[in-house]
Design a protein that fits this description.
single chain; 4 helices; 113 residues; alpha+beta; four-stranded antiparallel beta sheet; Alpha-Beta Plaits
Length: 113
């Protein structure tokens, strides 16, 4: 198992718990989300970010983004395309709960033979 101390250039996790608005065009919302991910990855100062998402049995979408630093996250939040997308949020979502946290410790295990 490999552990890493992330105090220097601390990665940041941003989680979003999203409840869809009844009747919302969720395909359009997912296209917009994918576009924003591509914009972030192509923007100097933000760069590569990780993204994972899944939906629970009640239909709530949970998305986890990993940014390389708080500065990268802030750059993404201020990006003009992100600002425009946020204005469209009410079209798609009944509510969004956001949590931001630094990665204090990270470990990875490879059990392959």
């Amino acid at each position: 198992m490999a552990d890493s101390d992330t105090s220097a250039g601390t990665p940041v996790l941003a989680t979003f718990e999203i409840k869809a608005r009844p009747g919302a065009n969720l395909e359009e919302a997912l296209r917009l989300q994918q576009h924003l991910h591509e914009v972030a990855r192509a923007t100097p100062g933000i760069g590569e970010i990780g993204a994972t998402s899944w939906t629970n049995d009640e239909g709530t979408l949970l998305v986890v983004y990993t940014f390389r630093s708080m500065d990268a996250l802030k750059a993404f939040v201020r990006h003009p395309e992100h600002v425009a997308a946020m204005k469209r949020g009410k079209e798609f979502f009944a509510s969004i709960r956001t949590q931001i946290a630094p990665v204090v410790k990270q470990s990875e295990s490879d059990f392959a033979p």
